[in-house]
Design goal:
Keywords: DNA-binding, Transcription, Transcription regulation. By secondary structure, the chain is mainly α. The chain is built from ten helices and no strands.
Amino acid sequence: MTTTRRTALGRPSATTHAEIERVAFALFEERGFDATPLELIAAEVGVGRRTLFRYYPSKNDIPWGLFDRTVEDFAALLDAAPLDAPLWETVHHGVVAFNDFPRDADPPHEQRMRLILRTPALQAHSVLRYRQWREVIAAYVARRTGASPSDLQPRTVGHVSLALSLAAYDRWLDDPSASLPGLVDEAMQGLRAHLD
């Protein structure tokens, strides 16, 4: 596995979110998510457990990467759309763009999503992340329609968009040679009925 990097004073050198994720995903692949304690990840990265907590509040957060930043980018992407574009189209294209990841992502997006979507121990934690994602859509729809994010239509659009995206991911994980953005695009075609 990795070797501990140390500074001249004997302390571990600085690390990054990306490095932690690379090490953690290698361990998850080798040992399984449940059998990989946080202490082992910290040791392999060359930092203490408390230092690791400065990067990720829990082991369950590691597979999600920098999700808070990604969600902020998603909100900015929706907000940048022309206001004269149909609402369904803006949400549709925003969700497709959100799910278009570089093929050279490290760890690979397929590995990340396979772990998140097919590891029972991560399902409860995923509900929190899905909520954040749905709230971005609900807030955007509310701004565009003059509604409140807690009103039924914005919430419904958030839930429907998530369900359509997850269906596309299920299909993609069964056949990773398929285009994920293409599958999300195809699934999101059904959104128009909710916003026309």
